[in-house]
Amino acid sequence: MASKETDFPPVEMADEDGFLAWGGDLGRDRLLQAYRSGIFPWFNPGEPILWWAPDPRFVLFPDELKVSDSMRRLLQKAPWRVTLDNCFADVIRACKKVKRAGQKGTWITDEMEAAYTQLHREGWAHSVEVWEEEELIGGLYGVSLGNMFFGESMFALRSNASKYGFITLVAVLKEKGFTLIDCQVPTEHLASLGARPIARKEFMGLLEKGLKKPTLHGSWSQWI
Fold it and tell me: pLDDT, tens digit, for every residue of 191-210?
C-alpha cells in the first residue's frame, strides 16, 4: 500500500491531454505506485516531472498481435538473436540516444535512465535485446506488475529490429499468462502490430484485475 507521500490524484482528474500532476521524484515506491494507479511519467529535460493518465489508453492485447507477411518471413529466417534482461543499461541508453524521425531530442532524461536502471536491478523493469552476432541492434524496455507489461521505449539500428524483439516478447508474455501490454500513447509503429485505444475506464478495470495476479519479479533472462 502506498504511503501518502506517493499517492496520486484520481486519474479522472487528468485534463483532456491526459496530464494529471507534476513534481515528486522517480524513486522506486513512487514509480511503482504510479503504474499501479494507471499513471506514467513523461517529461522533457529541464521540465519538472510530469505524470500522465490519458483517455483513451493505447494498449495491445497479446491475442490481437498482428504480424505482417514480411515480418513472418523475417522471423522464420531468424537472422537475429533475442535475449531478455541481458543488458538493460545498454538498451535504455540506446533508446535515449538513437535519433527518431520527427523528434528533436529524447524524453528519457538522465534521471529517468537512472531510475529505471535501478528498477531493473530490483527486478521490476525488464529489457529485450536483439542481436546481430555480437552487436546490439534493437530492443525495448518496460515495467512488469501482475500480469501486465508497461512498455516504455524501443529502438532499432536495423529496419524492423524493434518489431522483431517486440513480437518475440509478446509471444513469451502470452505463454506466461500476461493479458495486456500498456503502450501508453498511440504510435503508427505499435498500431501496425495490433495496438489500439481503449477507454481509460476500461483500462483501469483491466489494471485492477491484472494487479491481482502474481508479479513475475526478478530476472527474465532464463525465459529465452
Answer: 999 999 999 999 999 999 99
Q: Cα–Cα distance between 178 and 171 in angstroms, integer?
A: 10
pTM over 0.90: yes
Residue-level pLDDT at 152 = 97
Phi, psi of 189 (to 5 degrees): -55, -50
pLDDT of residue 72: 97
The C-alpha cell at 129 is 535485446
Query: At 132, is the secondary structure helix, strand, or coil?
Result: strand
Residue appearing with cell numbers 525488464: 126
Query: How far is Cα 129 from Cα 164, in angstroms, rounded to an integer?
Result: 10
The one-letter amino acid at 159:
S
Mean pLDDT to the nearest integer, 69-87: 97
Angle between helices 110-121 and 88-97 (to 10 degrees): 160
Three-state DSSP state, 2: coil
